Amino acid sequence: MYSPQVIDHHKNPRNVGMIKDADGVGTVGTPASGEMIKFWIRVHCGRIVSASFKAFGCPTVIAAGSVATQLATDTTIEEALKITNRQIDDALGGLPPDKKHYAIDAQNVVQSAINDYISKVTD
Question: pLDDT digits over 5-30, tens only?
């Protein structure tokens, strides 16, 4: 059912944990709903220099959060805003139809963290 990429990112998630004093933070889902991803970014000179996450839920949501950190790190804000659920899905080796919404959640949480960052620098 799970691709080797999903299994790898679930068993060995990358960039797990909170970034203290993060420049942007996003959350999608809630523990009560059974699935949640929280995403932190650190930005320097318009580039995401680090990204991390914590996730609660099935192996796919954890893997999607892990891949999202890899795709977002070392990109400009503009580039990171263009990360798509399709890119996340592809990086995970293709998700089953009933799991594709986790790639959408991961895309949304990256955008949420970036929007939080933008709101702080434009105030």
Answer: 999 999 999 999 999 999 999 999 98
* DSSP code, position 54: E
Cβ neighbourhood burial of 67 (10 Å; 0-12, 13-18, 19+)? buried
The pLDDT assigned to 32 comes to 86
Question: Residue 116 has which token pair?
Answer: 């939080």
Question: 111 has which bridge partners?
Answer: none
> Can you give the length of the chain in residues?
123
Separation between Cα atoms, residue 103 and residue 63, nearest integer Å: 9
Task: Find residue 43's DSSP bridge partners.
Answer: 48
Q: What does the DSSP assignment read for 10-48? A: HHS-SSBS--TT-SEEEEEEEGGGTEEEEEEEEEETTEE
Phi/psi of residue 88, nearest 5 degrees:
-65, -45
Low-confidence ranges of the chain (pLDDT < 50): none
Rounded to 5°, angle at Cα 56 from 116 and 22: 30
Show the CA angle centred on residue 56, arms to residues 52 and 90, nearest 5°: 65
